[in-house]
Amino acid sequence: MSAEIPAEIRTDIVVRPVRDVDAEALGRVHATCWHETYDHLISKAALEKISPKRMAELWTHWAVQGPEFTMRAALVGGEIVGFAGSGPARDRDAPRGRELYFIYLLDAWHGTGIGQQLFDAVVGKGEELYLWVADDNPRAHRFYARNGFTLDGSTHTEPFLGETLTEVRFVR
Known about the structure:
The protein is α+β, with helices and mostly antiparallel strands and 172 residues long. The protein has five helices and seven strands, in the order E-H-H-H-E-E-E-H-E-H-E-E.
């Protein structure tokens, strides 16, 4: 199915908890999303290090974390097209007790409302939390601003696939 049918009239969109049996599909989607998201920020050689198999191995662990972690997958027509996760803050100087770790959605599904559904599934209404996002990711910046986040002025450089990625922090 294509992403051209508006999300509000699609009946085959499901957002549900991630399951351990999703690891292989999540690995494929995760690897694809990283290519789609970071191709202008990270070298092609670094991105070639990403394999769906390696990402699937990570998901076998992420899928079975404790109840304080919220991991959700978005499916269209039974196929995973995106995922999101939140949980306890990872930073020592965290401005909030919880962190939005990630929201990734295949490019073909951007603008359909599925990203918002994922966000709503892992973040409580009005919940105070923070997140880190690539400095050069204007689409994500707009999405988080629409959801009540503001930049707090903090930045850091993260090692990413053997290179570095500058991230900025949003807080709500």
